[in-house]
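Q: What residues go here?
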């Protein structure tokens, strides 16, 4: 065998030895995904791997322990569980960001319990994907290390065994996007570990995109207008309190034109809980400005998963 292949084999084994004992399965019966030991009594995973406040966590030594949700950031697809880790080692997050071309190793745990290690490169950075509730998650790194379904929440590591990202979203051709191990991820994990989730104001409406809104307005003889059509309003939501109704067309948030749902998400992401947002609304042919107020406690909390 050539020296290069020898070195590659050694690197794969080193990654498995360094991180494998810290990788867990999340969920019963083989689990829905993976996670990593974050510290004593704490495991990090993706929010979409959870279906309840409690879940089974299976460790590298085969122990199955019931974990309880500390907190979840559903829109950011991240969660931290409180669980008896019983000495399982914590991962070490990288101190420098991964760059395109970096060789990385993906370490997952199969439903059968064994570690799975593959290698590839960082193929792109600053990618975006949609979280469980449709919000864009920006700044992700893309890697080519192949992973089977059920690997979300598993670590992507550098040659020294430090975690450069958490694989989160499977895309075409087998590539994965990962949440990068940057300062933002550290801060989010620290907050979730203490039971504090990021507050993201929401309107509480179901929306149809602009092209559907135009078609529906034409069908009832109303003039074309770019905007997001309200298809439903959640009882007790900020939208309901502001008087928004099914059939309203949202055309502006503040001074921002609303042509796509991402325009609305971007506007909402700039709003603090307890503050308000002016929405320009077209009802029929009448245009009005509605002020939506977001309660101080509005947003995701520990029960959001």
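A:
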């Amino acid at each position: 065998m050539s020296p290069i292949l020898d070195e590659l084999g050694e690197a794969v084994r080193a990654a498995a030895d360094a991180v494998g004992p810290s990788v867990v399965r999340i969920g019963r019966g083989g689990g829905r995904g993976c996670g990593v030991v974050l510290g004593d009594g704490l495991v990090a995973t993706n929010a979409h791997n959870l279906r309840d406040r409690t879940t089974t966590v299976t460790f590298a030594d085969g122990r199955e322990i019931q974990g309880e949700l500390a907190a979840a950031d559903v829109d950011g697809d991240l969660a931290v569980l409180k669980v008896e880790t019983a000495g399982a080692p914590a991962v070490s997050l990288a101190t420098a960001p991964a760059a395109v071309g970096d060789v990385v190793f993906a370490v997952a745990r199969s439903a059968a319990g064994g570690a799975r290690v593959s290698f590839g490169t960082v193929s792109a950075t600053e990618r975006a994907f949609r979280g469980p509730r449709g919000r864009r998650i920006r700044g992700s790194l893309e890697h080519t290390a192949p992973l089977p379904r059920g690997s979300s929440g598993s670590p992507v590591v550098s040659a020294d065994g430090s975690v450069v990202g958490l694989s989160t979203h499977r895309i075409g051709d087998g590539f994965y996007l990962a949440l990068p191990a940057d300062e933002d991820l550290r801060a989010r994990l620290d907050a979730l570990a203490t039971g504090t989730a990021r507050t993201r104001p929401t309107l509480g409406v179901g929306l149809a995109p602009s092209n559907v809104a135009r078609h529906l307005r034409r069908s009832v003889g109303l003039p074309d207008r770019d905007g997001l059509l309200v298809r439903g309003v959640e009882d007790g939501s900020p939208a309901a309190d502001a008087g928004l109704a099914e059939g309203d067309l949202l055309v502006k948030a503040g001074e921002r034109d609303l042509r796509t749902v991402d325009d609305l998400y971007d506007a909402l992401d700039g709003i603090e809980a307890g503050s308000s947002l002016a929405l320009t609304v077209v009802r029929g042919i009448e245009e009005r400005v509605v002020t939506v107020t977001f309660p101080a406690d509005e947003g995701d909390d520990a029960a959001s998963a």
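A: Context that may help when evaluating the design: Residues 205-293 form a domain with the Pdz3 Domain fold (CATH 2.30.42.10). Residues 3-19 form the longest helix (17 residues).
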